[in-house]
Specification:
356 residues, alpha/beta, 6-stranded mixed beta sheet, 5-stranded mixed beta sheet, 11 helices, 17 strands
């Protein structure tokens, strides 16, 4: 394989799952970048970047690690070998290994982690829809409003323009001036963020200003179909909780699940709806009106709340709802890299918890 430049690999990964789909709290994208735009010949997929996985990457001369969970999440003020996470980053830098994390952008996309979870129930799926919606990137970059203001082409109009430019100064605003030939007025078009809107409106409320012709329009984001967090699944035919359990185990490749029965459910209860969310999904599916809530982990009190609202909770441990997706997505990543990069799934990555 001839390999691809790191910049090309990152662009293709970003196109596959745009980073704006990730949750606001997340830390996604290229996290560790070598000092030169090196060629990527071998790329490793892993759910977590642990020391075992790091040793595997170094031993097998991987050029890049795509770690589903970001190894850099909260801010790092130092890079010391005494901290296991900081030490991993040091080793990446020393060995010129690039690190990229998609995390919740892979959760949100159509065909992503949550849709992979839903595959457990096929072909008995009548419908599967995102529980929360994802939106297209903010229109016109970071701007939230467009304001058009016709002003007289005279000293007073120029004064207002100067005030608008003063208030609107900064990266979050764009101002353009043009002439309206028919009226002899000057048209000022302003693209601004929410934080600049109040100051601009205050300028436009100048006592010598007329509000005739002023337009303020909010730039709306478009909902992306089939993208978002979690999935609400309606089955074609009802299935008992008893029969559902081995279906989930088989798909996730696990021998054990934890289950918290609804106060009205037993193993023989027939269920029709399932809410799924990879990882720690209570914030997404916790209030869902589904018969079954399937996720990796929930707190004690979150489970109690769900049970008393009528839902049975099934937990597989956090990363078991995610790790299996790596083998599913591996050929897709090979394809988007035009088979120029050797893409392998880590053999050392595993859930940190075991049953005894």
């Amino acid at each position: 394989m001839s390999g691809l430049p790191l910049s090309s690999v990152v662009t293709r990964l970003n196109n596959f799952a745009p980073l704006y789909l990730a949750e606001a709290w997340d830390n996604v994208g290229l996290l560790v970048q070598p000092s030169t735009d090196k060629m990527i010949n071998k790329l490793m997929l892993t759910n977590d970047l642990t020391q075992d996985v790091m040793d595997e990457a170094i031993r097998n001369r991987f050029d890049m690690v795509v770690s589903y969970h970001p190894p850099i999440f909260s801010g790092m003020k130092k890079l010391l070998t005494s901290s296991w996470k900081e030490n991993l980053i040091i080793q990446c830098i020393e060995n010129k290994i690039a690190v990229y994390s998609p995390h919740t952008s892979w959760d949100a996309i159509n065909g992503g982690v949550n849709d992979w979870l839903v595959q457990a129930f096929e072909p008995n799926v009548a419908a599967s829809v995102p529980i929360t919606s994802s939106y297209a990137a903010a229109p016109l970059n970071k701007y939230t409003h467009i304001i058009t203001v016709p002003l007289p082409f005279d000293p007073e109009g120029k004064h207002v323009i100067r005030e608008l430019l003063r208030v609107a100064a900064g990266d979050s605003t764009y101002v353009e001036e043009s002439m309206l030939a028919a009226s002899g007025k000057e048209l000022v078009t302003i693209l601004c963020s929410d934080e600049k809107l109040t100051g601009i409106v205050n300028v436009l409320q100048h006592p010598h200003m007329t509000t005739d012709g002023i337009r303020i329009q909010k730039l709306e984001k478009n909902i992306l179909p089939n993208c978002g967090m979690g999935r609400f699944v309606t089955l074609t035919d009802c299935i008992s909780v008893h029969d559902l359990i081995p279906v989930i185990k088989n798909h996730l490749g696990v021998q054990n699940l934890r289950i918290g029965f609804s106060v009205t459910h037993t193993l023989n209860t027939q269920v029709k709806t399932i809410a799924v969310c990879a990882g720690s999904g209570s914030s997404v599916i916790g209030s869902s009106k589904a018969d079954i809530l399937l996720t990796g982990e929930m707190s004690h009190h979150q489970v109690l709340d769900a049970q008393h609202r009528g839902a049975t909770v099934i937990l597989s441990e956090h990363s078991h709802t995610e790790r299996g997706f790596l083998k599913y997505v591996q050929p897709k990543i090979c394809g988007l890299l035009e088979n120029q990069v050797d893409v392998l799934v880590s053999g050392c990555d595993k859930d940190p918890l075991s049953y005894v």
